[in-house]
Amino acid sequence: MSDNALRDGSTVDRVPAREACTDAQLIGRTLSGEPAAFGELVLRYQDRLYNSLFRVLGSAEDARDAAQDAFVQAFVKLDTFRGSSAFYTWLYRIAFNTAMSHSRRQRPTRSLDADRNELGREPIDSQPSPDARLDLSERATQVHRALAELSAEFRQVIVLREMDGCKYEEIAEILELPVGTVRSRLFRARLELRDRLATVLENQI
After folding, report:
1. Were both Cys, which of 25, 118, 160, 188 would link to 21 (CB 3.0–4.6 Å)?
2. Domain 128-205, CATH 1.10.10.10 — does that match?
3. pTM beyond cutoff 0.85
4. In the 3-class helix/strand/coil scheme, how is the chain assigned residue by residue?
């Protein structure tokens, strides 16, 4: 007997499992007067956005402020989103503009070590084995210190490409730059980051 068949010969339809809404569906629901749908977008992207902003700004507090401001602005401006790019690309563009605004009026810079102590963790989702944590933490500290010494424009492209995994075209949309500029800026950023990491390693020998 089929799973859907009853003893009297009639059948019932299975209730399909609820699938996660697409970004477009959540945006449509929000614009139709369901603000809770935007809350689902916030939950979907808040960790990823915060991690990227932390790496660009080098401050947990500034990253939280910038992320919060970005979501507020995105909600207010949601009716201007035309869907020509992915929602997160549009959101990141707002976030990075907000981040740069925060940088220009930045409070006295706190150390990355202090921010990590405040967080109690690295802003990375991976969970290394206990034996590898000390080495991973030291390497992460070196990278963060070298990254913090780069200019804001170099930090942006490094974070988006190497840490957030964005494509060149996505980075170009987020930063509103030609793809060629993104490629050349990323090339120079990688060289400078490599040189700074080499200096850090030499100083430890």
Report:
1. 25
2. yes
3. no
4. CCCCECCCCCECCCCCCCCCCCHHHHHHHHHCCCHHHHHHHHHHHHHHHHHHHHHHHCCHHHHHHHHHHHHHHHHHCHHHCCCCCCHHHHHHHHHHHHHHHHHHCCCCCCCHHHHHHHHCCCCCCCCCCHHHHHHHHHHHHHHHHHHHCCCHHHHHHHHHHHHCCCCHHHHHHHHCCCHHHHHHHHHHHHHHHHHHHHHHHHHHC
